[in-house]
Design goal:
Blueprint lengths: L8 E7 L2 E8 L2 E7 L22 E6 L13 H11 L6 H7 L4 E2 L3 H7 L6 H9 L4 E2 H6 L5 H13 L20 H4 L2 H4 L3 H5 L7 H14 L2 H4 L4 H45 L14 H8 L2 H14 L2 H13 L4 H14 L1
Antiparallel strand pairs: 1-2, 1-4, 2-3, 5-6
Helix pairs in contact: 1-6, 10-12, 12-15, 14-15, 15-16
């Protein structure tokens, strides 16, 4: 409906053998009713009631619509808010987080003012205000004040209202094929390696491995496997968890020698600088020891320098800054990128 702004015409909403027509006049809803006067299980349906259909699909036919005198009109935004609220229990946050085609969402200030005019509750408006800052989708669903299911429904509502046109087009959801539980439980028996067991290749990033493991764990949930395969699912989960741990441990072991070497050289440099003569004059461009220590402990600064040097082809210098970043305990999702830099510079 968010695509129908300022348009006039008929929207055909079809659900199996039933069909409804929604008349629009310059973006506002004039009337809703069964097509050709047919019978409908919905008595005097509104646009919001059409959200309760099981598997609807729609076709919009632009054209002239006659506006009769004193005919009332409805704002499509109100129908969207009420309609999604009726189906809020259908929005699974675990599934939605994989289907939203962007990682970060943000609501601008002008849009936030418009949302306050719609019939949202106080906690829903507070949720929208939390999204006025760039917010990862996962944090928005689980860490912004609303229960995950309500947060998912709220995100879909905002999407249909056209809040995120650039990052997430109205009605756009990625198709995600989830692994079948009956195939996951036998995967440990057929796999030749830990990576194959998780369904990824050996060159995959740490983020890809984490995502694959989460998806497999979701497929092994008791509600999906049933009682008949509960024992197999338990054994499969234990095998997949062990494979995941071995992969992560092997990556840590690859990093450890590099970090140890860098820490040893850092201590030597610190020791040499600490015994410098009292009367010695530091060069103009030198950095105070405290500042240099702070910079070495900042993984983000060193990561940015490593990226720039790597792009310029200065691989040896990029390797040095990548090692500094690793020594500063960066987040897990950064370590895969730093390891790739070290391999390229080897």
């Amino acid at each position: 409906m968010a695509k129908l702004e300022r348009l006039s015409g008929q929207l055909r909403v079809i659900d199996g053998a039933l069909a409804y027509r929604v008349s629009f006049y310059r973006g506002s809803i004039l009337n809703v009713g069964p097509e050709n006067g047919g019978m409908s299980p919905l008595k005097d349906p509104s646009a919001a009631d059409l959200f309760s259909l099981d598997r609807p699909w729609s076709v919009f036919e632009a054209g002239e619509v006659v506006l009769r005198s004193a005919q009332s009109m409805e704002d499509p935004a109100l129908a969207i808010v009420d309609g999604v609220r009726q189906r809020a229990n259908l929005f699974d946050p675990l599934s939605l987080v994989q289907r939203i085609p962007t990682d970060v969402l943000r609501i601008d200030g002008v849009t936030l003012v418009k949302l306050r005019k719609l019939p949202f509750s106080e906690d829903e408006l507070a949720f929208a205000e939390e999204l006025s800052k760039p917010t990862p989708v996962r944090l928005g669903l689980w860490k912004r004040g609303l229960p995950p299911t309500r947060a998912a429904a709220m995100m879909v509502t905002l999407n249909l209202l056209g809040v995120w046109r650039g990052a997430w087009k109205p009605g756009e959801l990625l198709r995600v094929v989830e692994p079948r539980a009956d195939r996951v439980v036998v995967r440990p028996l057929r796999s030749q390696s830990d990576f194959e067991m998780l369904g990824v290749d050996e060159e995959s990033s740490e983020a890809d491995v984490d995502a694959a493991f989460r998806q497999l764990c979701f497929a092994l949930h008791p509600d999906r496997c049933g009682e008949a395969q509960s024992d197999l699912a338990h054994d499969a989960f234990a095998s997949l968890s062990a494979a995941y741990s071995r992969i992560k441990d092997s990556w840590r072991q690859q990093i450890a020698p590099e970090i140890a070497t860098h820490r040893t050289s850092s201590r030597r440099r610190a020791k040499v600088s600490s015994v410098a003569p009292e009367n010695s004059v530091a060069p103009e461009n030198s950095v105070a020891p405290e500042n240099s220590v702070a910079r070495e402990n900042s993984w983000l600064v060193n990561l940015q320098k490593a990226r720039i040097l790597s792009a310029q082809g200065a691989l040896r210098k990029a390797r040095a800054f990548a090692l500094k970043s690793l020594a500063s305990s960066p987040p897990l999702f950064v370590r895969a990128e730093l390891l790739a830099m070290l391999r390229n510079a080897a």
